[in-house]
Amino acid sequence: MRTEGLSINLATVREQWNLREAVEACAKRGVRAVAPWREQVAVIGLEESARVIKGHGMQVTSYCRGGFFPAPDASGRQKAIDDNKKAIDEAAAIGADCLVLVVGGLPEGSRDIAGARAMVEEGIAAVLPHARSNKVPLAIEPLHPMYAADRACVNTLAQALDLCARLGAGTGVAIDVYHLWWDPNLDAQIARAGREKRILAHHICDWLVPTRDLLLDRGMMGDGVIDLKRIRKQIEAAGYSGPQEVEILSSEWWKRPGDEVLATCIERYNSVC
Amino acid sequence: MRTEGLSINLATVREQWNLREAVEACAKRGVRAVAPWREQVAVIGLEESARVIKGHGMQVTSYCRGGFFPAPDASGRQKAIDDNKKAIDEAAAIGADCLVLVVGGLPEGSRDIAGARAMVEEGIAAVLPHARSNKVPLAIEPLHPMYAADRACVNTLAQALDLCARLGAGTGVAIDVYHLWWDPNLDAQIARAGREKRILAHHICDWLVPTRDLLLDRGMMGDGVIDLKRIRKQIEAAGYSGPQEVEILSSEWWKRPGDEVLATCIERYNSVC
Predict the structure, then answer these.
(1) pTM
(2) What Cα–Cα distance (Å) separates residue B148 from each residue in A184, B99, B162, B187?
(3) Which of residues 6-45 of B touch A (CB under 8 A)?
(4) Most buried residue, A1, A154, B51, B70, by CB count within 10 Å?
(5) CA–CA gap between residue A93 and residue A95 (Å, rounded)
(6) B260-263: long-range pairs with CB below 8 Å, 24+
(7) Strand-strand pairing, B171-176 and B138-140
(8) Alpha helices, H only, chain A
(9) Contact B229, B273 (CB under 8 A)
(10) Coil, strand, or helix at residue B200?
């Protein structure tokens, strides 16, 4: 089965394998791209992570994740900026195509979403020179509106692209179908993202009906209602031909053997993506 | 405490009281507006419901609900149209200001959200003459994107207003803060809704952090992160001065005595809305 153009976000098997085991399992099945999380890198160390990933000739489609810029006070925001710079360094060290930014929601106790959005913009602007000099593009990931309060107050592709337009070179977007499939402006904004050369990553999974949990009930491709092939066609028409990165945060799939999850990802990538 | 300008959507106390009991409890506390659901009307009958509501001189800010237009086949869609006409008749009989439309999501087995949206538009167009001749405005309620698959594929105020613009007289929008608070275009679209004379209802509750259930974990005003006063100001600036209708679907609040829920609604209406 085809594995070219497929990337596995290692959160998909985070409960089954550590980074080394996951990369080895991917390599064994012919998968040539992965996307690790900082937490996974921390477990075996940055140097060893880079060695394992490069040793298997793996493309790193995303490094997850920076962001979470809003905070109630200036020192909290500075702490976030410092931590994002560290994330940029790590992304550079493992040779990631981009650092994904889950930008953060409302600061604790706040109801000011416009204010949170301003903090996000300031935070990204503050780390952008460091990202540019390390040649790590920042992939702003618009998250589903159900995460606006506590994870990301950037919630549509249009909003993320407006942000990129203001911030300039070195910024782009991660298009995750789970977050964006419902948007009536999706097609137009994917085309715009292509014209503006902002597409840095394409993440896939599926939206289940019913969805039982806001965070950990993402579906395997084909098990939900997202028209994955149609969206992929739009993304390719917009000029992006990079890998489709499978990112499934699911308490259900985490219960199954890693090999089964990986085999299913490959199978569904071939049949429905 | 002020009760003028407050309406209670009777779903808020649906597990505690039937329609008669709920209306009597509202009247006793000086609340002069309610919004009943069809299921509640059905329990005691349409005639008796109208008698109780009119007997207490209650304004009916919404009748809940029509919609659910998409279906896999033409006969299913016709059935929805027929049922919506019946809902219009009921809304007229109880003297409702509008019939709220929760438009419906994807037909079973479908991944075609653009197709579902077309079915919604066709369905509303099919019932609109009946609504006009009965003088029942149709309030399209954009629902939060987390309901796009199974409840409503109209998910932003802009999308609802575009729909109204195509459908014409007799259509408008219900602005529910729970569904729309996250939208970066909210202010602009509220202003547009005012200019286009489309605001038919203003629903309030709150978005809790964390939200534990996609459907039945709406918050009491003040318990979440929505800046209710700010949004109300925008809506009034857009020319709408009708009641704020409290609609809380919450397995938590349904466990408490109806009187406590009602008293809390009134208190929070005075303090945070």
Answers:
(1) 0.98
(2) 10, 20, 17, 22
(3) none
(4) A154
(5) 5
(6) B261/B12, B261/B13, B261/B16, B262/B8, B262/B13, B262/B25, B262/B26, B262/B29, B262/B31, B263/B29
(7) parallel
(8) 19-28, 38-44, 46-55, 74-93, 113-133, 157-167, 177-180, 186-195, 228-237, 258-272
(9) yes
(10) strand
Instruction: Kindly identify which residue of chain A lies nearest to residue B108, measuring between CA atoms.
Output: A225
pLDDT in tens, A66-122: 999 999 999 999 999 999 999 999 999 999 999 999 999 999 999 999 999 999 999
Find, among A133, A175, A137, A134, the residue nearest to A157 by Cα.
Answer: A175
Three-state secondary-structure class, residue A31 = coil
Q: What is the pLDDT of residues B83-134, one digit of tens each?
A: 999 999 999 999 999 999 999 999 999 999 999 999 999 999 999 999 999 9
Instruction: Count other C-beta atoms under 10 Å from residue B232's C-beta.
Output: 17
Phi, psi of A200 (to 5 degrees): -110, -20
Cβ atoms of A97 and A60 closer than 8 Å: yes
Chain B residues with CB under 8 Å of A155 CB are: 182-184
Q: What is the mean pLDDT of residues B192-201?
A: 98
Interfacial A residues in 113-132 facing B (CB < 8 Å): 113, 117
